Amino acid sequence: MTEDKPEAQQKETDTSRPAEDESWKDAVAREKEREAGGGRNDARRSPPPPPTFPTFVAGLSTQVLVYLGMLTHPATGKSGKDLFEAKYIIDLLGMLQDKTRGNLTPEEQKFLEETLFELRMLYVRESQTTSGPEDAEMVGPGEQT
């Protein structure tokens, strides 16, 4: 019931096969990790800034700039206006200002006030330059351009 291959050749064949299977499985596992983490485990990326109130506000502000068409979307690389979403995030920042009143440092309060002022002015400017049926739809129900 044994094969006619020499014993050394059988061992070589037996050990090489599982090693190939394992390397393939390892490669698939690494690819799944990259996809699941969105590449966030990449050692070449710098760590994110510490979670502070100003970095939180700045992150939301960046989203507004993307929705106003002033920055390209980081995932798609495309630029376009979505005034409805821009207004929603500006309103979120306004609500955050109301709810945190009296609980922020003077620097944080000033940063939030100045950021909100700038974003509101940008929104007004962009909504006034919006003309055409496709842009009007982005504003949302009940809103005026």
Keywords, separated by commas or semicolons:
mainly alpha, 66% helix, disordered C terminus
Q: What do these coordinates show?
A:
- The structure is a single chain.
- By secondary structure, this protein is mainly alpha-helical.
- The chain has two domains: 7-47; 53-139, no CATH class.
- Helices cover 66% and strands 0% of the residues.
- The chain has five helices and no strands.
- The radius of gyration is 27 Å and the shape is flat.
Short description:
The chain has 145 residues and is mostly helical. The protein has two domains: 7-47; 53-139, no CATH class. Helix content is 66%, strand content 0%.
Structural class based on helices, strands and sheet pairing: mainly alpha
Helical residue percent band: 55-70%
Alpha plus pi helix count: 5
Q: Return the string of H and E elements.
A: HHHHH
Count of DSSP E strands?
A: 0
Low-pLDDT sequence parts: 132-145
Query: What Rg, in angstroms, do the CA atoms define?
Result: 27 Å
Describe how the helices and strands are arranged.
Layout: H1 7-37, H2 53-67, H3 83-100, H4 106-129, H5 133-139
Helix pairs in contact: 2-3, 2-4, 3-4
